[in-house]
Write a structure and sequence with these properties.
This protein is mainly α and 312 residues long. Helices cover 63% and strands 3% of the residues. It contains nine helices and four strands; from the N terminus they run E-E-H-H-H-H-H-H-H-E-E-H-H. The longest helix is centred in the middle third of the chain and has 78 residues. It holds the Pfam family ACBP.
Length: 312
């Protein structure tokens, strides 16, 4: 097989293959051309090595079935694969052929004719020859490329879906954590308010309970807890009403005052004088910060309403 010689690696365009049979060679004529990896990528969309693997797969699947190559074409294509797999032909490394092994001898001559063709050049020429001989080859590559792109697109879409799902779960977890923190903060605040109210009213409620259940500490304790719980809920209800219906404090009338004692069976158990001086004294000793929503006017109105209810 004749090849053009040059100072550097040879580049071939497989144009025609005219076999000239002799005992030692099969001569193939080629025209010189340039074809590098960038051109291969531009035309077929795959690197040379990947494209060669696809071409070899196409050859093995189609040869003798959908496509029938001539004897000489098959010799040449096989010679290219030998050059790719084993490099330059070397008779010393090969077992001897049988006397009647004509096909084996032809294959070795085709391989030997490739001379110093590099692995990359052999892959490239195998692809070029297959493309020239088989119009279906380009369609096969394009179909494989479309399938690969579709799989890559599905993979990207799945990764994008997973990222969005992970982000959604992260946001949900962050929201849940913040809600839990807010509930915990509110519970701490609720306990602080209730503890402050209980401390403030314990003596009054204790005295009232002793009047209701003399000599019965257990019933007294139950009643005190009931009164304190009622007191807390009334306080929070009125506080909420004031927050939603009244503008922010603007005058001295809105100075801090603590809540008066809570009802017990419809009456106000008030063991402290109903004066501003005593109210101020209670306020200065109290530990309840939320009572800042109460004003002297509010306290007086609340007391009057309780007294009226008790009178009824």
């Amino acid at each position: 097989m004749a090849v053009t010689q040059g100072s550097g690696p040879q580049d071939y365009e497989i144009d025609s293959f005219e076999p000239v049979h002799s005992e030692n060679s099969v001569v193939l004529s080629m025209k010189e051309m340039k074809l590098d990896d960038d051109q291969v990528m531009k035309k077929w969309g795959f690197p040379l090595t990947d494209l060669y693997k696809l071409a070899l797969k196409f050859y093995k699947e189609k040869e003798g079935k959908a496509i029938h190559f001539s004897y000489q074409d098959k010799l040449t294509l096989i010679a290219f694969t030998k050059q790719v797999n084993y490099g330059k032909y070397n008779a010393d490394t090969l077992p001897p052929l049988g006397v009647l092994d004509v096909i084996g001898r032809d294959r070795r001559m085709a391989w030997q004719a490739l001379g110093d063709l590099t692995k990359e050049e052999a892959m490239r020429d195998f692809i070029l020859m297959l493309d020239r001989l088989c119009p279906l080859f380009t369609a096969f590559i394009e179909a494989h490329k479309a399938d690969l792109e579709a799989r890559e697109r599905r993979k990207w879409e799945e990764e994008d879906r997973k990222k969005k799902e992970e982000e959604r779960l992260r946001l949900e977890e962050e929201l849940r954590r913040k809600e839990e923190e807010e509930r915990a903060r509110q519970e701490i605040q609720r306990r602080q308010i209730q503890d402050a109210l209980n401390q403030q009213t314990y003596a009054q409620f204790k005295a009232y309970a002793e009047q209701q259940y003399p000599g019965n500490p257990e019933q007294q304790g139950v009643l005190v807890r009931q009164l304190q719980d009622q007191h807390y809920h009334q306080y929070m209800q009125q506080l909420l009403q004031q927050q939603t219906s009244r503008p922010e404090p603007e005058s001295e009338e809105n100075e801090v005052e603590v809540e008066p004692p809570v009802l017990a069976n419809g009456t106000l158990h008030n063991s402290q004088p109903d004066s501003e001086e005593d109210d101020d004294e209670i306020n200065s000793q109290g530990t309840m910060s939320m009572a800042s929503m109460w004003t002297r006017k509010d306290v007086r109105e609340f007391k009057e309403s309780i007294r009226r209810e008790g009178g009824e």
